[in-house]
Amino acid sequence: MLGRDQVLLWWSRCCLVWLSLAVMAVQGLADAPPSPTQKAGLMWNRTGLPAVFPLQVKTSSGLDYRVTLIDAATGAEALAAYIEGGAFFKVLVPPGRFEIHFAAGRTWQGEGLAFGPGDETQRFVLPEPLTFAVRDFSTKAGHLIDLTDVDLDGDKEITVAERLICQRLRLVNFPRRQAPFDASDPLQEVLPDQRDDLISPDRYRAVDDSDDARGPVVPTNHAPYFSRPEFDVRKRLC
Fold first, then answer.
1. How many other C-beta atoms lie within 10 A of the C-beta of residue 105?
2. What is the pLDDT of residue 182?
3. Is-above-0.85 flag for pTM?
4. What is the rounded distance in angstroms from the CA atom of residue 216 to the CA atom of residue 218?
5. DSSP per position, 146-198
6. Which of residues 173 and 100 earns the better pLDDT score?
């Protein structure tokens, strides 16, 4: 039977071993590189083209996703974006026809590993490429991909619908009837090569001598003339 001193010695050695293991574990966690963080949204666009067409993806919470667009004709990577599971996500993409590749997982490990090696990253591709283009000169055609009912361990119930944005011009400043200028008008200017014609900037715009792009408005000799109309572009879901 062990004496009291031997029991205390044995217990002290066990405590030292446990303490050493705990210190080693803490040091290991401190020395391990932190997992890279990735903000939701656009990661990169390698096409050099303007991104103007909508791609919306609906997901459930629990997994994050990376979506990559691959040019269907060349196989080149066009664009990638990061999706936080369960959060609203929409990104603008360039024109083209693309294969849509998804990678899903829990902890982002960077571009090389995605969400980790092996089964830690689950990958799938939409069965058909999607086309992003302008229709009828005024409609931007994008897509809505719904992954909320996707079962990554079984059948992938993915639904895809068009996401159309209609654009139209709206007249915001109507042409206004304006009288011809006479020699006493303080805004009048005389062209060196056309001294018989009186010209002036639009009276309904701010006068800016440095802005040559607007150009002068040349009235007739006797009849009134009209100011330039102004338009803006309005967008809405079709």
1. 21
2. 54
3. no
4. 6
5. E-TTB-TTS-B--EEEEEEEEEEEEEEE---EEPPP-TT-TT-EEETTEEEEE
6. 100
